[in-house]
Write a structure and sequence with these properties.
It comes from Candidatus Methylumidiphilus alinenensis. Helix content is about 45%, strand content about 15%. By secondary structure, it is an alpha/beta fold. It folds into 2 domains: about 140 residues, Response regulator (Rossmann fold); about 160 residues, Alpha-Beta Plaits, CATH 3.30.70.270.
Amino acid sequence: MSSGLILPGEGVSSVVKHALVILLVEDSPFTAEAVRRLLSDEADIHFHYCSDPFKALEMAEKVDPSVILLDVAMPEIDGFTLCRFLRAHPRTRDKPVIMLFGSDEPLVKVQAFVAGADDYLIKLPDKIELIARLRHHSNAYFVKMERDKAKMALRIGQARIDFLSGQVTELTRNDLLTGLANRKTFEERCNELWSLAVRNNIPISLLMMDLDYFRLFNEHYGHPKGDETIRTITGVFRQSIRRPSDVLARLTGEKFTALLPATHAEGAIHVAELVRSGVENLEIPHCKSEVAYHLTISLGVANAIPSHGTKIDALLKLAEDCLDKSKEAGRNRLHIAHLDESDMPVNL
């Protein structure tokens, strides 16, 4: 008789075959020998015998049974107590347990099921019935194990999909080189934070930052060095612009921006100077710069207290204009301006 089983969704060619491993926990060697003989003609049934109920768990961990046959009447510890113990242990809690009774009393059967048994047999059972029940419970156990494996594989697969989906989302929202927000993400956050500033009548500041003569830097030192330098300077940005509400983004190769909600002009100037001095203090050599012998940065700072019906476009333009003025004044500096309400475009 074959012990193979067909899992749902599988064809006949993918039948999974398992050997049946039976562990008998029984203090009587005569009963054990009788059960062994009943199973001796079944080539795919491997029989193991444990005479000491206190060693049942150790034996079960060793042979990994597909069914445990458990005698009810044993000295020192009865089968009901041992069954509850096996059900509580993580290595045996899912193992099918068939209890062996000396009588056919209904109360004993109830006690067995309450203790966690899956089935029962009256000693000594009929050979055909014994083998049929062992095969039935073993196959049910194998199916459960295969399903549990499939569920685990599904959970792992779903977790990987979720992770990769998050990675894709991250890639679409962030700059690949620096990990900062990209232009699309920055524009979304700008509108959100501008609306928040309007509702709460609080100031908002914007920094536009451009690395001085960075195109010449790339041409002279090479793009790999340029990328390494961008990542290094990103560290200065992160150290200087640290609040969770601030939005730091890379707009183009050497151009960066930062939106600072709930920030007055004085606070924006302080942050901008931290960035400027932080880049300068790195003293990254730049022999092609017309400003210094090291890399520097120019900044434009714009500040406003937005009113209802206005848009952020004017603040962005003002920050750009301030950046241009910093460059015109000699670079490696910052220029700031406040946006008056009369200069703010109105949503129509």
